[in-house]
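re: the backbone from monday

yeah here it is again, tokenized this time
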């Protein structure tokens, strides 16, 4: 049909928008928590990942480097490689709004020792709603059950009280401290190292290995 465009048919346009939104969220998801869809990395996540980095509140939790805007193309290329190379990567989609709100990942530190590192980033507009606790518990549980890990480690700045409280509540223990490890907001903060072992996790959450695929 000469001159045919989707926009000439409003109902078809609306249907296409619905299908595109569905493809961006639910169609490739494997897991759901109460409020979130956890799916694999997609290239169209990169704009959202860049937006997270460009939020000073978020960037403060991601890096011990100076807070500064990253070079867009290089940062997206780096994060694409990082995401695709992670042992486990979940892009986080908020069920109610269907927005990409962050990511959670597991990266092997020492394969021989079955030790891995947890990383999590959530958009600041979604802080304080329990989503960090929700996805951290799911991710750690999944990693212990399906990846054969015997410990999961992380590091967090002294000033990130919200994250420290979440990790401690879930069962992570302080294992060390790098004094004055990070200069931020005009003062020094320690870098705190935390970890949890598989047998400790099993005691805390003996029935936590139920996964939803709805």
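seq for it, each position gets an aa:
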């Amino acid at each position: 049909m000469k001159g045919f465009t989707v926009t000439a048919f409003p109902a078809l346009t609306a249907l296409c928008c619905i299908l595109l939104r569905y493809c961006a969220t639910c169609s490739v998801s494997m897991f759901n928590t109460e409020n979130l869809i956890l799916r694999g990395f997609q290239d169209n996540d990169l704009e959202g990942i860049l937006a997270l980095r460009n939020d000073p509140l978020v960037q403060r939790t991601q890096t011990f480097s100076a807070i500064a805007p990253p070079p867009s193309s290089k940062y997206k290329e780096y994060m694409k490689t990082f995401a695709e190379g992670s042992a486990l990567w979940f892009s986080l989609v908020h069920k109610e709004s269907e927005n990409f709100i962050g990511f959670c990942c597991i990266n092997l530190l020492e394969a021989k020792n079955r030790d891995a590192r947890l990383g999590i980033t959530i958009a600041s507009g979604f802080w304080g709603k329990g989503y960090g606790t929700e996805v951290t518990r799911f991710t750690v549980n999944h990693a212990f059950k399906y990846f054969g890990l015997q410990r999961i480690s992380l590091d967090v700045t002294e000033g990130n009280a919200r994250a420290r409280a979440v990790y401690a509540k879930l069962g992570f223990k302080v294992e060390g401290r790098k004094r004055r490890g990070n200069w931020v907001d005009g003062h020094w903060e320690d870098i705190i190292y935390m970890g949890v072992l598989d047998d400790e996790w099993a005691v805390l959450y003996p029935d936590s290995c139920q996964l939803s695929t709805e």
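Strands lie at 29-32, 36-39, 88-94, 100-110, 115-122, 151-157, 173-184, 187-197. Residues 131-147 form the longest helix (17 residues).
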